[in-house]
Write a structure and sequence with these properties.
By secondary structure, this protein is mainly α. 83% of the residues lie in helices and 0% in strands. The radius of gyration is 30 Å and the shape is rod-shaped.
């Protein structure tokens, strides 16, 4: 199985309890949240599989990576054996037989060489080019996912302050999903490395902030509904940093 698919599945299972445990209000609510959570990771796995159509074709005809490597090893080994035989066996002394002798080994060597080159061109080169393209596109997509999560969490308090209760809770959930989306990319560590922050620290920091903002918004429906944006913001800013509102 491709390492990208394994990492995506591990990522989905590793944080599901810590991310969703305190969001359940009942069996139906838990099921809805869990399906929404899994969908984020499932979409990433589907995108990774669709990025390698030639891999599905190769696997369909039974050419696994081990078989392909074995074919190349056989071609190289046969070439080496042919060269050894040519070096060890004495060549005929008669001119006509010697010419046929050399022509036979030349044709055999040419066949092996063509087979080897064809195997490389048909299997290895397209996969390498597609891997390079996939790596570039994934880096770009991971940067976009990280930017959306980072920007969303940075200005979240100010956006929440002007929203009604339902829209505010929906926005917090949307940022939560964007956080999960960014975490599906292994490249997230590369983006965070520029700021010297580990992925786990970044993930925990955002999860804690979202949880505090959710609790602040959801603490009192009437108070939120009857408050002005300035009053909401005065409570949200300290709450997101773990301080009690003044």
């Amino acid at each position: 199985m491709d390492s990208r698919l394994r990492s995506g599945r591990r990522g989905a299972a590793s944080t599901v309890k810590s991310e969703l445990a305190d969001w359940f209000e009942g069996h139906g609510h838990a099921k809805m949240k869990l399906f929404a959570y899994v969908e984020v990771f499932y979409n990433q796995l589907v995108n990774a599989e669709e990025a390698f159509p030639e891999r599905r074709i190769v696997m369909a005809i039974g050419l696994t990576d081990k078989v392909i490597r074995g074919m190349l090893v056989v071609a190289v080994g046969a070439t080496v054996v042919l060269l050894v035989v040519m070096a060890v066996m004495p060549a005929p002394t008669e001119s006509e037989l010697k010419l046929r002798y050399m022509q036979f080994y030349y044709e055999a060597f040419k066949t092996l060489l063509v087979s080897f080159v064809a195997g490389v061109l048909i299997v290895v080169v397209p996969q390498y080019l597609n891997e390079a393209k996939y790596t570039f596109e994934r880096l770009r997509e991971s940067r976009r996912a990280y930017s959306e999560a980072h920007t969303g969490i940075t200005y979240l308090e100010y956006k929440l302050a002007v929203l009604d209760y339902g829209a505010a809770m929906a926005l917090i959930e949307d940022i939560h999903v964007k956080k999960h989306m960014a975490e599906t990319y292994d490249e997230l560590a590369r983006h965070l490395g520029r700021k010297g922050e580990p992925v786990t620290a970044w993930s925990d920091r955002i999860a804690v902030k979202l949880d505090k903002l959710k609790n602040e918004v959801g603490a009192d429906f009437d108070r939120w509904t009857n408050s002005t944006p300035q009053e909401r913001l005065a409570r949200l800013l300290p709450a997101s940093k773990g301080r009690d509102p003044a």
